[in-house]
Every structure is written in C-alpha cells, then in structure tokens.
Design goal:
Layout lengths: L5 E5 L4 H11 L6 E5 L5 E5 L7 E5 L6 H17 L4 E6 L18 H12 L3 E5 L14 E4 L2 H11 L4 E5 L5 H11 L3 E7 L7 E6 L6 E9 L3 H12 L5 E8 L5 H5 L4 E7 L12 E4 L2 H13 L13
C-alpha cells in the first residue's frame, strides 16, 4: 500500500477490472454495499471510513447504462457526504459519448449533460479511456485524464508479426488513430467512407487506399451491435483483402454482436476489459487488460507526475 489515504471502490459494472487495479497497486478493494429497493431505487453504503481519504470509484457505463450511471451518481454523493477528501471516478467507457453534438434540430447534447451531472453531484476528477470524441474533455470544469489503449493494442499486434498489414479506419473520424497505429506498425493505412441511414446502421460507399492482397487491421474506439464492423469486413473482402483483424477499446457488444463478430472472415477480435465480457465467448475474441495503465494513472494522481509518461507518444 503506497498511501493510507487511498480507497478504491467498485460499482456493479466491472468489479473484475477494479480488483485487477487494486492488485496492481497492492491495495485491497474497498468494502461497499450496493443494493436496490423493490421500486428499483439504488442504495449505497460505504462499509469502512473514508473521511479525509482520496476515493477512487471504478464504474463503466456499460449495459444497463442508465442503471450504472445512476449507481455511480449515488456512490459519488455518498462519498461526499461521508467527508471524502476527493472523489475521483474511473470511467473506462464513458457512455453517451456518441451524442456529443447536435447533428439535427431539437437533439440533445447528452455527453455534455452527463458531464454536468457528474460534476454537480460532486466528482473531483474523471479518468477515462478513448473517448468517442476527445473534445468531450472540454465539457468538464474539473480535471479529466484521457487515457488511450492504443499502445496496449499496438504492442499486441506487433508481436503477431502480421503479414502485409494495412490499418483500416472504418470512417473518417478514426483516421487519425489509424494513422498512429499504422506508423507504429510501419504499415500503410486505408479509410472507409460510409453513410448512416439510421442509428447502428451503415453502408460502405468508398475505400481510400489499397487493400487487395493485404491483411486489414480495423481500429475502432468501440463496437456496439457489430453491424458496422461486419459491413466493413465484407466490403474489404469484396475488394480482395485477406481475412481481417478487428481492434477496439470498448466491447459494448449489444444484442447479437458476439455472434455477428464470430464471422468466418474475421481472424481475431481484440478488445480491452474496459467493459466486462461474458465468459462464454468464441476463441476468436482476445481481451487485453487496461488495469496496469489505470493503476499507474492512479499512482501518478496520488503521488504527482505526468500522465503523458504512460504513453509512447505524449501527443496521443
């Protein structure tokens, strides 16, 4: 234990990750009771003193997202009222991030609303990974440590010595990340151009770059239903590509996504444990842990230093 004032607690969304973070830090996961009234209301009770302590709460906005979000709010409020010195929230996956702007009249900017609520209820700091839109950091008036899993993914891919790799961005929004990964792997990259007729639907219209005879590596921040990824995979195969690797930080995997991604033209799906996955899944899925990175970020916050030292390229 490197600080007797550090306390780490887990919400219901991803206790395994919280336990891994504690193991990395040599800490014991804090004792907390979380339950529901018959009406569905959340009840939280910290079962150890946290007065004048730096509290870190681990909670991902995974399914059921609204349940986990409200649970986190109640945990923050309980910590503030128990006289915690600071309340730091580790939100590996920040939900509502795809609603970060108005794309049509009379739409909400839900990512900003979530930031406002977290700040108002009493969060002092947010630690998160690979926001869907990095500009969301600006929605907060408290410190935000925006980490990336790109180094974790790229180190794993480099060890595989993939033949004739080409990094593929599934849309223009991920082009910058695809370029960084391509530079690290010393490979070319390509961009898919798509249109979205509705939520969770997409149609590939063009490919910028050569993929014929190459082994594509698709890089995404999150995978939700898997429909877009399968469309990209099939679009690449139609253009003469070899079987494909799929990488993403956040495995939301809504609905039948696990079954969709168990696709004959996908060699491997590589994700992180930012969201807890069911144990029963195909061998096609590889899960890399973000616990050491989150543990080191926690250590830096407690002891001082630069978060950018966690990454190969401080500009990431």
């Amino acid at each position: 234990m490197f600080s007797d004032k550090l306390r780490i607690f887990s919400g219901s969304s991803n206790q395994q990750l919280a336990e891994r973070i504690c193991t990395e830090l040599g800490q014991t996961l804090g004792k907390i009771k979380i339950s529901r009234f018959k009406s569905g209301e959340v009840y939280v009770h910290y079962e150890e003193t946290i007065r004048n302590c730096d509290v870190f709460i681990v909670q991902s906005f995974s399914h059921p997202i609204n349940e986990n979000f409200v649970e986190l709010l109640v945990m923050i409020d309980a910590a503030k009222r128990a006289s915690a010195r600071t309340v730091n929230i580790i939100v590996p996956y920040y939900g509502y991030a795809r609603q970060e702007r108005k794309a049509a009249p009379r739409e909400p900017i839900s990512a900003k609303m979530v930031a406002d609520v977290l700040t108002t209820v009493g969060a002092d700091r947010v630690i998160t990974i690979d926001l869907h839109a990095p500009a969301i950091q600006g929605f907060f008036n408290i410190p935000v440590d925006h980490l990336t899993a790109l180094d974790i993914l790229s180190d794993y891919l480099k060890k595989k010595n993939i033949k004739n790799p080409v990094v593929v961005s599934p849309d223009a929004g991920r082009a910058s990340t695809a370029e960084k990964l391509a530079n690290y792997l010393d490979s070319p990259f390509a961009i898919m151009i798509k249109k979205r007729p509705a939520h969770n639907e997409s149609v590939i219209t063009h490919v910028i770059g050569d993929v014929e005879g190459q082994t594509p590596i698709i890089i995404e921040d999150l995978i939700d239903t898997g429909t877009t990824i399968v469309n990209v995979v099939e679009g690449l195969k139609e253009r003469g590509a070899e079987d494909i690797y799929v990488c993403a930080t956040h495995p939301l995997f809504s609905g039948p996504a696990l079954q969709r991604l168990d696709h004959p033209n996908i060699k491997e799906v590589i994700v992180t444990d930012s969201i807890q996955l069911p144990a029963s899944r195909s061998d096609r899925f590889t899960v890399l842990t973000v616990a050491p990175m989150l543990a080191e970020a926690t250590r830096i916050i407690m002891q001082g230093g630069s978060i950018s030292t966690l990454f190969k390229n401080a500009g990431i």
